[in-house]
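Task 17 of the worksheet. Students: predict the tertiary structure of the chain below and write it out as structure tokens. Keep your answer in the requested format; marks are given for formatting as well as content.
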Amino acid sequence: MARRRRGRPVHGILLLDKPSGGSSNHALQRTKRLFDAQKAGHTGSLDPLATGMLPICFGEATKLSAFLLDADKGYETTMQLGVTTNSADADGEVLETREVPSDLSEEQFKAICQKFKGPLQQIPPMVSAIKIDGQRLYKLAREGIEVDRPARSIVIHDLQVLSFSGTTARLSVKCSKGTYIRSLVTDIGEAIGCGAHVAELRRTFVSPFEQHAMLPIDSLEAMATPTFESLDELLLPLDAGLAHLAAVSISTEGLATFQRGQSPNCTLLSAAKAAGEGLCRVYGEQGELVGLGELAESGEQVAPRRVLQMG
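Model answer:
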């Protein structure tokens, strides 16, 4: 006998405001249970200390989540000068305490921060989910093992000093994928000469959802009803984060062809907004997203790359 699949077939994207003090997976599972969803995943982890935007993809949206992982992100962080920790944040063990230069002015601090704008080579922190030789760095860190980590190319698009007190500072950062704010804060602290760690961290947005409100899980729990209607109304559509891709439409006959893994004829609805994007959104006759495809050079046919099953 086939095992009964648990949960509802929920499809869409929720912009969760992750609370501090738990993992991204804990927040995901809590939200999944709240929606009684069959399937859910998140697009990029936040540290347990961190709060802020954590896109949750339900159902068929999980097939599209990889296309959100490349997105730029925004953060606000409070850095504590003069103290370094093994995790580079307030949750870690103190490694060293150093004097903050008594003559460090706000203008000098801002000037140092400005040196970190633009393309950078950044070394990820040991307490991270990156794998080295098949092992997660944070697992090695728990065993007291530190290994060399190759630097990664990132971009700090914007870095603003929101406040400075002499021993603490609050920063606003807009950055590319793969950026570790803990590493950025560490590097700024070392450039000053006193070290630093992240005291607070909040993700303010994940592109392209800058203008969308985040939803605290406590508010979601207060809205829960046996019918789930009020919760389902909060979900963004499957294509909410895919507007940068070209869009095509296919006929009902073409949809059957597309679902068989073959390339139907298509009609171009809109061109790609980003250069080099080979994928496109594929819509059915009723305007529903049916998957992602790759346009032929002629622009008249589309090959399936992600096929959605909304049943």
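Marker's comment: Residues 24-35 form the longest helix (12 residues). The mean pLDDT is 91.
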